[in-house]
Amino acid sequence: MNLTLKIWRQKDAKSKGKMVDYQISGIEGDMSFLEMLDVLNEDLIAKGEEPVVFDHDCREGICGSCSLQINGEPHGPDRLITTCQLHMRMFNDGDTIYIEPFRAKAFPVIKDLMVDRSAFDRIQHAGGYISVNTSGNTIDANAIPVNKENADDAFAAATCIGCGACVAACKNASAMLFTSAKVSQFALLPQGQVEASERVLAMVNQMDEEGFGNCTNTGACEIECPKGISLENIARMNREYLSASLKG
Ligand code: SF4
Ligand code: FES
Questions:
Q1: Domain limits at 179?
Q2: In CATH, what number is assigned to the domain containing residue 190?
Q3: Is there an atom of ligand 1 within 6 Å of 157 CB?
Q4: In DSSP terms, which residues pair with 174 in a beta bridge?
Q5: What's the CATH number where 61 sits?
Q6: Are residues 198 and 154 part of one domain?
Q7: Each residue's pLDDT expressed in tens, for the chain with a length of 248 residues
Q8: Ligand 1 in contact with 183 (CB < 6 A)?
Q9: Distance separating alpha carbons of residues 212 and 198, to the nearest angstrom
Q10: Where are the alpha helices (DSSP H) in the chain?
Q11: Any idea what the Cα angle at residue 222 is, between residues 190 and 187, rounded to 5°?
């Protein structure tokens, strides 16, 4: 395949960025999107030009770092996959592909296509944990019965990889889907009950402090989420938040 790439280039957080055109050839359908960018970067390095900076680590849909806006969609045109799992067979010979970083005030651009998603880490630090007595009296987790439906829903919520596609897809740059997944994975389990009220209040407050927008129930986040995190988690978080607020 021969392709035209229009890629966002930005020197650093303070510089103004712009779209730059690149021509690329010899791309196979079986290549991943990141492998295609590797080919481009090898070409650029061979020509003495600066390679395009983009984030990646596991390249198998686990780490959530490969956050790219491709033709206006987070993680590109396929569903339930991350950018590293997107194959070039989704595109046609002669296509023009627009590649941009995830856009949100709370995700400032570091360089080119790489953004700072540490706001998500700070939301997690605010309450995404449980306190367990490990002084020798620890109770085996399996000794506490858990309703199968709750266990399945908690597991599904825990599959959120913190990629930020939900924020990039949302017209308000809301982080409700991410935060609600992180709240739900504890709210559904007995082990999460002790700190439930403090957790939801702290995580939602941190989410607001980071500058994410409000949820207006558009649902774009659920559609673009590579892990299929359900909007039901947002409803659950709202119930948890209301109940914690009423307790004072
Ligand atoms: S909810 Fe989905 S889209 Fe949002 S951070 Fe988690 S995995 Fe990514
Ligand atoms: S590089 Fe880890 S999810 Fe894509």
A1: 117-247
A2: 1.10.1060.10
A3: no
A4: 213
A5: 3.10.20.30
A6: yes
A7: 999 999 999 999 999 999 999 999 999 999 999 999 999 999 999 999 999 999 999 999 999 999 999 999 999 999 999 999 999 999 999 999 999 999 999 999 999 999 999 999 999 999 999 988 778 887 787 888 999 999 999 999 999 999 999 999 999 999 999 999 999 999 999 999 999 999 999 999 999 999 999 999 999 999 999 999 999 999 999 999 999 999 87
A8: no
A9: 20
A10: 33-46, 118-127, 148-158, 165-169, 176-187, 196-209, 220-224, 232-247
A11: 10
Ligand 1 atom index nearest CA of 224: 3
Specify whether 143 is located in the same domain as 98.
no
> What pLDDT is recorded for position 143?
87
Q: Is 189 in the pocket of ligand 2 (CB under 6 A)?
A: no
Examine the domain organization and report whether 82 and 143 are in the same domain: no
Tell the burial category of 35 from Cβ atoms under 10 Å away from its Cβ (0-12, 13-18, 19+): middle
Inter-axis angle of helices 196-209 and 118-127, to 10 degrees? 160
Please identify, by atom number, the ligand 2 atom nearest to the C-alpha of residue 163: 3
The domain boundary residue, chosen from 111, 137, 155: 111
Residue 3, beta-bridge partner list: 24
- Pick the last residue of a domain from 111, 142, 163: 111
The verdict on 242 and 121 lying in the same domain is yes
| Pair of tokens at residue 186 | 């504890």
Residues 103 and 182 in one domain: no
The pLDDT value recorded for residue 33 is 98
Ligand 2 centroid distance, CA of 58 (Å): 5
Q: Which atom of ligand 1 is nearest to the CA of 74?
A: 3
- 130 and 17 share a domain? no
